Amino acid sequence: MELVANTSLAKAPTALQQHVLFWDRNNDNIITPYDVYSGFRELGFSTIFSFGGLLINIFFSYPTRLAHSYLPDPFFRIYVDSIHKAKHGSDTGIYDSDGHLRPHLYDELFDKFDESGTGSLSVSELFSLLKKDRVAADPAGWSFAFMEWWTTWLLLQREGRVWKDDLRQCYDGSLFWRIREDRMNKEEGWKQGYGWKDFYRSLNTGGTWKEWELRPKS
Predict the structure, then answer these.
(1) Best exposed site among 29, 125, 164, 197 by fewest CB in 10 Å?
(2) How far apart are CA 34 and CA 36, in angstroms?
(3) Number of Cβ within a 10 Å radius of residue 104
(4) 132: part of which helix (H) or strand (E)?
(5) What count of Cα atoms within 13 Å lies in the side-chain half-sphere of residue 64?
(6) What are the C-alpha distances in Å from 72 to residues 4, 216, 218?
(7) How far apart are the first and last CA of the chain?
């Protein structure tokens, strides 16, 4: 999957910059609230969820603005070139302080929490990961980490689990372009993730929200 180059960045983009480039709609180093909304819609999220994504701009605009000015951005825009300043506490540490990926920490994450040995993480294993990463007196970091993993699971889950190869593409941003391309292919589409239809259908037919448990085994 070829990523769209961002010519507004002075250097080769870091992994964290690549992670957010999907939302830089016009390749200008700026992510507006509308960019966030439209990006989530293209990934298949509902209108309500995509509006909720505007919290990203509210919380992360000012940290990225600090590389350019001490004054807050009146339009809550996020600056891609300084996205590393929006790193929060209680995270996995897979991105370093400059936004570069630490592959050894990524592999260690699965070594520690993939109890099934399938190269994937279940919901309970993700909660164990969140508990491990929590540091004292950091409710903001706890909340951001939960929202990020919750969104990741909703987008990526297959058979109730987040798979290592998919998550790796999420970290470097290539996954989002792949999902958009798959969704544009109406015959195939994006077959992963979890939405309201899955929730209600599984409750009605099997009395459980775990809809993957109700699918016929191949």
Answers:
(1) 197
(2) 5
(3) 9
(4) helix 123-133
(5) 27
(6) 29, 53, 54
(7) 29
Q: Which pTM was predicted?
A: 0.92
Please identify which residue in the block is written with the tokens 């992963």. Answer: 192
Going by C-alpha positions, the residue among 58, 68, 72 that lies closest to residue 29 is: 68
Eight-class DSSP state of 161: B
- Nearest alpha carbon to residue 8 among 87, 58, 74, 77: 77
Instruction: Tokens for 83, please give them.
Output: 């996205």
DSSP structure class, residue 158: B
Render each residue's pLDDT in the chain as its tens digit; 218 residues: 445 555 557 679 999 999 999 999 999 999 999 999 999 999 999 999 999 999 999 999 999 999 999 999 999 999 999 999 999 999 999 999 999 999 999 999 999 999 999 999 999 999 999 999 999 999 999 999 999 999 999 999 999 999 999 999 999 999 999 999 999 987 778 999 999 999 999 999 999 999 998 888 65
| Residues 83/17, Cβ–Cβ less than 8 Å | yes
CA distance 63 to 87: 9
**Spatial CB neighbours of 61, under 8 Å, sequence gap ≥ 6:** 72, 73, 76, 77, 78
Rounded Cα–Cα distance for residues 58 and 144 (Å): 12
- Taking the C-alpha atoms of residue 6 and residue 79, their distance in angstroms, rounded to an integer, is 13
Contact between 92 and 133 (Cβ < 8 Å): yes
What does the alpha-carbon distance between residue 21 and residue 6 come to, in Å, rounded to a whole number?
8
